[in-house]
Amino acid sequence: NAGVTQTPKFQVLKTGQSMTLQCAQDMNHEYMSWYRQDPGMGLRLIHYSVGAGITDQGEVPNGYNVSRSTTEDFPLRLLSAAPSQTSVYFCASSYSGGGNTEAFFGQGTRLTVV
Amino acid sequence: GDSVTQMEGPVTLSEEAFLTINCTYTATGYPSLFWYVQYPGEGLQLLLKATKADDKGSNKGFEATYRKETTSFHLEKGSVQVSDSAVYFCALTTRRKAAGNKLTFGGGTRVLVKP
After folding, report:
1. pLDDT value at residue B83
2. Out of A92-96, A97-101, B71-75, least confident range
3. Using CA atoms, how far apart are residues A41 and A37, in angstroms rounded to an integer?
């Protein structure tokens, strides 16, 4: 019953470092997304994918890269970390189904950039 | 673009009180509407949803009705418990396949229920 698994749960980076946040789902969902959660702003979409090999930008894509080589995995790369990227990051997955389907979320990665 | 506005918190209630959290939206077409809940230290989980006008979503004593005429989806519960303390997010998604079920969220409302 793994669902959506994110690693790591916590991370501290120095400004300018790069890292990859991992996300894996075992439900064979077509759609996967990355959001960041900041106080008072809800969750904002960073990047999303509608299937392996297909990705697109969301509302706040700058400073992040994604790729989707398999259905199961959707890693998020921070190219050169900045303090503005301090946030909690959530990965989500869902079936297609014309907007009617539930999104399943991972437990989040809390990232601090110093 | 699409947007969701929900009342700011925190909302502090006593156990067995009535809870309502207002949510209004702006969207093109006919979105699906959701309430997600986030318990402390956890990810979000779906609380309820409604996919067309006048639909009522319900779960765990919570209810919300999709009101197209007022573009609203207010969340209500008649008698809250301490275990309902959480952050509640109103959200919408469009029906276009290319949109990938991406969600537009409100800012979240923290609810604290005291014994």
Report:
1. 96
2. A97-101
3. 7
